[in-house]
Amino acid sequence: MAQETGAARRTPLNRERVLRAAVDLADRVGIEALSMRGLAQDLGVVPMALYKHVANKEQLLDGMVDVLVGEIDPPADGPDWKSAVRRRVLSARRALLGHPWASRVIETRTSPTPGVLAYLDSVIGMFRAGGLSADLTHHAMHALGSRIWGFTQELFPAPPATAADTSDTSEQAAALAALAAHYPHIAEIAAGRPHDGDSVVGAGCDDAFEFEFALDLLLDGVERLHQRGWTSVDRPQEERTW
Amino acid sequence: MAQETGAARRTPLNRERVLRAAVDLADRVGIEALSMRGLAQDLGVVPMALYKHVANKEQLLDGMVDVLVGEIDPPADGPDWKSAVRRRVLSARRALLGHPWASRVIETRTSPTPGVLAYLDSVIGMFRAGGLSADLTHHAMHALGSRIWGFTQELFPAPPATAADTSDTSEQAAALAALAAHYPHIAEIAAGRPHDGDSVVGAGCDDAFEFEFALDLLLDGVERLHQRGWTSVDRPQEERTW
DNA sequence: AGCAAGAGGTGTACGGCGTACACCTTCAGG
DNA sequence: CCTGAAGGTGTACGCCGTACACCTCTTGCT
């Protein structure tokens, strides 16, 4: 208690606290509004203080990714590689889903962080343990791409979004009609799904469904190739389809 | 010629020239180094002059995307929807491949540009013309995701990249050994492909192969679902795999 | 007890960015 | 000849990341 001279002493910063505060701030204000200055203010500290804990902003972003990736469940062995991988990827999805910026940040890292490498390594290991060849596993990983992280890669965040998030259905119908004039096929598809409304303004798609649909399409395809003993030299005969 | 008072009059800027110069500049210096000021300098003009032709930087980026998307070949009807879509997507790939920033810019657009909508609409139309239901087409589009643009979405741009682009194979072997200590499965796969070397430092993968592998996996999967008359209500029985 | 060292926090400053706003020039059409 | 609009300019503001010199505690050794 002799330590507590004057005002209560602030517990000192550390890398962990900085990273967690950064994740928090990005969740609140969006990744493009995340600044070293803003983060410092959140932590009640002067901007330059952060540089005692992270080398620069890029490394801060690296660290933020590792925080999220660290929350993915460890692999649990299932009956078969396919459902084991599936479960793991869905766990990644759970870990990253609340952080819409994660996808973009991961994709802009110029070199992978240790946590990222560890996760990728373990997923590869799951394929290999299931008996897939290194060759096929390699291509399967590429085919999954950023879907390994549980992202549905949106073509664009929202449809035109003509009128703001009005729940007036007649306005929505009007907007759809305008869209249909120029882009009839898009309109047809946008109209098809009945607008499940849990996400932001009228994305109109069940994100979880779309994700699992695509994931299963890929995993099933890989499984079929595996069963037929595929190797990359099989390729040429398919290549000349066009 | 009476016009040419004093120094040669500069032909006035227009939106088109601004956008093309921006694409050029981004190709040369990278998207993150593209600035309104630098672009203005390239065009021999003061920064604020650009704002007579584009509303702001976001709209500049929108326009740049539309320039590239406008270079995708129009649809050509083939024997079947699958090879028609395949050819179209590979055309998109050709159009965007020389602009490594395109993928990131497209993904950060907050609302789609007309050119983007037109392309998407036409691809949807190709599926529909092939007899696929609106339902299945919708999910197929989501499953393709940004692969519609011809991108292989890299998990990360390059492996750890320990020593710079040395062509010293013994150093590479050493780096690989170090990697293998912590991430044995990644090392195995990185070692597998014999390093085709046409791309930047040792990505070690044939990008075109990976892309077409994934594309065919998805298209074949969709075709199979189509043939068996799939609808989204088929789903629940699969959903409980885990 | 005295002190050196280092970890952590501060303050100032620089160069770059996007862009608001007021201004000037040029020129086509009435 | 005049007007008005289109296109280009110059200045200025507030934000950003971060280099660098400095201060202030805490800790451990003598």
What does this structure look like?
Chains A, B: Residues 35-54 bind DNA. Chains A, B: Pfam families: TetR_C_1 (PF02909), TetR_N (PF00440). Chains A, B: InterPro entries: Homeodomain-like_sf, HTH-type_TetR-like_transc_reg, HTH_TetR, Repressor_TetR_C, Tet_transcr_reg_TetR, Tet_transcr_reg_TetR-rel_C_sf. Chains A, B: Residues 12-72 form the HTH tetR-type domain. Chains A, B: Keywords: DNA-binding, Repressor, Transcription, Transcription regulation. 2 copies of one chain form a homodimer. Chain A has 242 residues and is mainly α. Chain A has 3 domains: 15-54, Arc Repressor Mutant, subunit A (Orthogonal Bundle), CATH 1.10.10.60; 81-152 and 207-232, no CATH class; 166-202, no CATH class. Helices cover 55% and strands 0% of the residues of chain A. Chain A contains 11 helices and no strands. Chain A has helices at residues 15-29, 36-42, 57-69, 81-97, 102-108, 114-129, 134-144, 169-182, 184-192, 207-227, 236-239. In chain A, helix 1 crosses helix 3, helix 3 (57-69) packs parallel to helix 6 (114-129) and helix 7 runs antiparallel to helix 10. The longest helix of chain A has 21 residues, at 207-227. Chain A is flat. Chain A starts with 14 loop residues before the first helix and ends with a helix. The model of chain A is unreliable at 1-8 and 195-202 (pLDDT under 50). The structure holds a DNA duplex (30 and 30 nucleotides).
